[in-house]
Structures are given as C-alpha cells and as structure tokens.
User: Fold this.
Amino acid sequence: MSDQEQRDIEVVVGRIGKPHGIRGEVTLDVRTDEPDRRFAPGTTLRAEAPAGADRRPSSLTVARARWHQSTLLVTFEELADRNAAEAARGTVLHSTIGRDETPEDPDEFYDHQLVGLEVVDVDGRTLGTVKALVHGSAQDLLSVSTTDGRDALVPFVTALVPEVDLEAGRVVVADRPGLVSPFPDEVTDEAGS
Assistant:
C-alpha cells in the first residue's frame, strides 16, 4: 500500500435523487455536514451505481451546485440532460479526503478520527476503546468496546461526551451505571456466577 493510500480515506457524501428541470440538474440526498465544501464546482466524486443498474460513469465532476429552499441541486459535467440525470438516480457519491483532514467546525469529527480512541471517564479511568460511530436518525452513538469485553453505546452528545481530544487520543465520557460501566447488581451477579 502506498503512502498516499495510507493517508487518504473515502467517505459517502451524497446520493443522487430525481432530476430537476431538463438540463441535467439533480436533487441530492446530502450525507455530509460540509455540502458546500464537498460539492464545490470542479470537485470530482467517485460514483457508485445501485446494484443492477446499467453502466454509468465511475466518476462525476460538479459543474454547479445551488440550494433551492432546503434541497441541494447539483449539475454534473457528465449529465447533459434530463435523461442522463434520470439514469443516474440512486447513484451514491464518494469523496476522498486526507486522513489528517479535519472538518471546518472544530466540534465535528470524521468517523475515522474517533475509531480507536481510548474512552475514559471524567476522572481519567479507562473504560474502553471507540469501536465505531453509529449514525442514527435522531443522534449519533459511540460504540465502545469496554475493558471487560462488552459493547456499549453512548449517545454522542456534549452532556455525555464532554471532551474529544484527538491529540491525546482519548474521548471523555460522563459515565454512569448502565451507560458504559455495568449496573452494580450486574457486577455482583457476574461475580457470583
């Protein structure tokens, strides 16, 4: 694997929806917190057609992007008309980002930045390691592999995760029984078994 491949990571940034108008413009189901950055004119994205779809371009280049109310409308250089836009419906778009790249908002993180971080409580005791970030419709959850071999889900909200320190390689969780640490009676039951 080259140094470039070790540094870069691919993320899903959107999915093409229905055509808008007759000149190849499409609606976009945005799957990034930085749509203006990911869909800037001139940006080339890897295009993944849905299973069973006819052959489509393997990459698409953004010609223009604009907001219409709360919907992002994008024109790609490769989609010249409504027919091409309709044929591209359902295509998932991927962007390649540098492994060391960070979101513009200092309170946001890419999944790969969090996976593998040590999870500690507010007193600095190790609780486990971040295994994954689970994206939910209401909120994101940190999947934590605990020191005693269990898996725990922690809502990724400031009240429960007050600090993420990428440089120190840790996430602070305001733990309470049943969140990451087991309830006291669970520990007693396991000890008695």
Q: What stands out?
A: The first strand starts at residue 8 and ends at 19. The mean pLDDT is 88.
